[in-house]
Amino acid sequence: MQNTESRPFASHRFSVAPMLDWTDRHCRYFHRLLTREALLYTEMVTTGAILQGGRERHLRYNAEEHPLALQLGGSDPGDLALCAKIAEDYGYDEVNLNVGCPSDRVQNGRFGACLMAEPGLVADCVATMRAAVTIPVTVKSRIGIDDRDSYEELAQFVATVAAAGCETFIVHARKAWLSGLSPKENREIPPLQYDMVFRLKQDFPHLTIAINGGVTSLDSAAELLQEIDGVMMGREAYHNPYILAEVDRQLFGNSGTIPSRREIAIAMLPYLEQQAGLGVRPHAITKHILGLFHGVDGARAWRRHLSENANKPGAGAGVLLDALEFTR
After folding, report:
1. Which of 205, 153, 12, 151 is nearest to 94 (CA)?
2. Quick one: which of 18, 44, 21, 40 has its CA closest to 31?
3. For 208-243, how does the pLDDT look when each residue is reduced to its tens digit (9 = 90+)?
4. For 281-290, what is the mean pLDDT?
5. Is residue 325 over pLDDT 80?
6. Which of 154, 177, 237, 273 would suit a FRET pair with 116, their CA atoms being 20 to 30 Å apart?
7. How far apart are CA 285 and CA 116, in angstroms?
């Protein structure tokens, strides 16, 4: 079991999206070096993965990652409640229910975006989870699915789930097609409809409403925050992570010196060495920092050196120092 104290819970003013195969504990440690204020999310973890013996593998994290939310995938209220309680015992600051992922695998398990067609079931899940824990239970959804994409249906979904005690909704401002589009296409082809999320905030002023989808700059995040309570950034934060270094100052009003890219890279060295002592190969960590020098001289050589050398037998933390030589 994780033995750490959580930080006071952060607002949803800015968060980094849960991204499968990307936002693992190594990625989140790296992101936390860039921002102290942003709320970080795990990859989606299914209730089955936790309950069938994968608890420690899926839930362990570094104490430095707080504030940290666990995103769960599932549709059985009892299983979700049990996993929420396990997450609370591990020290997570929030549990989030995935009602937005459109992949076939997720649909076959009866969770993800297909649950938008069953607001009553989602409400039961939320109510049961909330009864089991004292930490916040939140929901991440789409604006709709297939032809069920009217504002009225979205508002009814939110009203039903809110009545069960959910006070925070993170809404990906695209609908999802449950068949015909891949998960990648579902992140790009359905048009963004920010106005629907803005309207939700107007109609449900007592709820915390955060928006996700298409956010590629902190300037656009600041503009969105004029309309809603929070912004969640996904792929841009992963591929161009240094953008997170400006979050605390630009979106939270914090003062202080922003570390350079090189300083962030060097700050990763003790973590690489610590994890190597635990049997973690450098590549498992360095793959998440490839974009650190995005857009500056030496970025391509930096990425190439890490990609080609961090997974070699005997590779150690020195591979990062060697890669830094290309960024001078």
Report:
1. 12
2. 40
3. 999 999 999 999 999 999 999 999 999 999 999 999
4. 97
5. yes
6. 237
7. 35
CA distances from 26 to 110, 229, 277, 281 (A): 29, 28, 15, 11
User: Beta strands 208-212 and 39-46: pairing type?
Assistant: unpaired
* Domains defined along the chain, listed by start: 14-252 (3.20.20.70), 261-327 (1.20.120.1460)
Q: Under a CB-based contact definition with an 8 Å cutoff, are residues 259 and 299 in contact? A: no
Annotated binding site for FMN: 18-20, 71, 140, 172, 212-214, 234-235
Split at pLDDT 50, 70, 90, the class of 256 is confident
Count of Cβ atoms closer than 10 Å to residue 140 Cβ: 24
Q: Read off the pTM.
A: 0.94
Longest Cα–Cα distance of the chain, Å, equals: 58
Whether the bond between 136 and the residue before it is cis, its omega within 30 degrees of 0, is no
Alpha carbons 328 and 322: distance in angstroms, whole number: 11
**pLDDT reported for residue 176:** 85
7, pLDDT greater than 60 = no
Angle at which helices 194-203 and 151-163 cross, to 10° = 50
- Give the Cβ contact number of residue 206 at 10 Å: 6
Active site residue 114: no
**Under 8 Å between Cβ of 276 and 328:** no
Please identify which of the residues 83, 101, 125, 166 carries the catalytic annotation. 101
Say if CB 161 and CB 139 are below 8 A apart: yes
- The pLDDT confidence band at residue 105, using thresholds 50, 70 and 90, is low
